[in-house]
Amino acid sequence: MTELVTFLLPALPLLALLLTLLFGRYIGCEAIVRLSERIAALGSPRLGTAGRRPGHRPPVLVRGGGLLLALSLSGRAPPAAA
């Protein structure tokens, strides 16, 4: 019995999420909608171009992390056998 409980214990959060999705509810859905509305309101052009500084560019998003490292190492051959 304890082996079964030990086996199923890590799967309980996944099963709970699956059951809520099957019943048509998503945990935190309202919070995600409120956050997206707040972000959309911040990005709306309320001031137009009069509120912007001349020559101001939006920030550039740079890729980083594992993908950048993998792409930089993908052209390199494996080390030679000694």
Describe the structure.
The protein is an all-alpha fold and 82 residues long. It has a domain at 1-44. Helices cover 50% and strands 0% of the residues. The termini are far apart. The relative contact order is 0.04.
- State the helical fraction: 40-55%
β content, as a range? under 5%
Main beta sheet: none
Q: State the end-to-end CA separation.
A: 53 Å
Instruction: Based on Cα principal axes, name the global outline.
Output: flat
Question: What's the structural blueprint in terms of helices and strands?
Answer:
Elements: H1 2-8, H2 12-22, H3 29-43, H4 66-73
In short:
The chain has 82 residues and is mostly helical. It is built from four helices and no strands.
Task: List descriptors.
flat, 4 helices
